[in-house]
Predict the structure.
Amino acid sequence: MLCKRIIPCLDVKDGRVVKGTNFINLVDAGSPVELAERYSKEGADELVFLDITASAEKRKTLISIVREVAKAIRIPFTVGGGISELSDIEALLKAGADKISLNSAIVKNPELITKAANQFGSQAVVAAIDIKFIGNEYKVFIKGGREETNLKGIDWCKQAAELGAGEILLTSMDRDGTKEGYDLNFLKELTSKVSVPVIASGGAGKKEDFLAAFKEANVDACLAASLFHFNILQIKELKCYLKDNNVVVRI
Amino acid sequence: MIALIDYGAGNVASVANALTELKQDFKITCNEIEICRADKVIFPGVGEASFAIRQLHMLNLFSVLRMVKKPLLGICLGMQLMVDHSTEGNVACLGIFPGTAEKFDSAKTKVPHMGWNDIEIKSESKLFTNIKSGERFYFANSYYVPVCEYTTSITDNNINFTSSIEKGNFYGVQFHPEKSSDAGLQLLKNFVDLC
């Protein structure tokens, strides 16, 4: 049976992993390669690297980071953050990334999903979608949550899957950094409406939150950052807990 | 020397990294003479089947791969291209193994089949030396090869499909050994040392 996945997320800025809350108070947390190796040893099923480098010039370091990470670990990893061209996607995949996550670029240019999926396969294309509850509905935000769009959460997720995304990485901006748990209501509806795997993101604060996302919302993977970075929760401990509660995980 | 085939439809870097970790002598190539002279051939693949087959035709590798006499390991799409036919792009494949690669039914299961899943070993294989039935490997596939007489292990994703296949010098695995941590490295080591 297919295992449920636990995915640590690493924010990369100017070639270093940084940790902080909501992009504020960033602290250097080490080299991407060292942390990738650590999480891989601790039993992470996959990794996500999010490049939050501001300048395009410094962005070029991303390719060499991907190359080094791919040499160091034998588990799959996704790279995202500011990717908007097919040539960028190709370069990152060739450097050894397994998947590319696309966020703002596909809202402006939805065809990019189809083009990337046709060229590299759906399995390599992750639609990263940030949502926030406004008024009485979920709206999609882009540019790291700074810009609201007209898109409705579920509609855009469905469209992204139909266009060829092989996975949806769904981040609840309302829950992000709160440690109040994943947005189960939205995730529940999402997993009932799309047939691609769904990764829950935003809000994990304790083991029970992961269990609820898997059991109640039927997500395929859970992503978390600060919980793992600040050693609040060990991946091994989390997986043992999930296993004891009848979630199939790889230990 | 191992020939690692680069035909523009495979994540060659990750396989190359794994072979480097295993301290193997390999060459990334699409040259038919180098492929024929190699002691072992690894045929990776990600992406779309008909595109990949077109690439093989363009590089004159279609018949070369069918006639390789040394051990050849197809990985993921590489394995799917070794059967008769694929419904992905409706394309004639290498025909080394019988059968048609089909798409998972998205009404019954999530597609792509993505993540770590276990294999149930159905027949003895050198590839599985020091690997137990039930071991988990990393998969990322929307299409699958149905179980046939050459299937050596199966995996369950709503239906049982071929997770590894073997006939003579031809080997195929649906999962990505290069991305499957220690068990994956062991399998690649087995191919290199024992097959």
